[in-house]
């Protein structure tokens, strides 16, 4: 008998997705007991769910038995990147033209930030050449630092100078309201940056894109 459409299968899927979201949203490892408590499930159920996720590469256990998000999710993330890029381009174009600076969307992949969408302004004489696919440590540059700030509960804009490229100044803000995605919207330029004026525009662009993806 085929039980694929049974209520039990749907419940197992729902529980597995809740567990996956918890691993993705917590930014810290958890024991199966802690996971069971946070999900309101028994430990045997959590163990079975973890085993299934581990077998598919979506979860992993460290030497102390704590559960982490598995690297298999990166495959799914890369499949989603073209969709994110397409959704981000309109907001990034407006931001680049408004700011006269190169605008970008950066997503977190482990300890690195990956630029998946970049738009350069059309009317400036000089702008930063920032290529799609560029990677950098989250601890360097406005885009990565904005993502790290969001992990600490801060959603305002971040300003940096010369951290990734000499003479370049950047402003970035995290995308709010998307527990499944760690990302930031930002601008970078060699010119002067009026952070008090431009910062709120970057935040507004991040909110616009976050709302579109919610």
From TrEMBL:
Residue ranges of the HTH iclR-type domain? 10-71
PROSITE patterns assigned to the protein according to its UniProt record, in alphabetical order: HTH_ICLR, ICLR_ED
- Report any Pfam family annotated for this entry: HTH_IclR
| InterPro entries in UniProt | GAF-like_dom_sf, HTH_MetabolicPath_Reg, Tscrpt_reg_IclR_C, Tscrpt_reg_IclR_N, WH-like_DNA-bd_sf, WH_DNA-bd_sf
* Record has Transcription regulation as a keyword: yes
Q: Where is the IclR-ED domain?
A: 67-214
What SUPFAM superfamilies would the database entry show?
Answer: GAF domain-like, Winged helix' DNA-binding domain
UniProt keyword Transcription, yes or no? yes
Domain of life assignment? Bacteria
* Keyword annotations: DNA-binding, Transcription, Transcription regulation
Q: What is this protein called?
A: Helix-turn-helix domain-containing protein
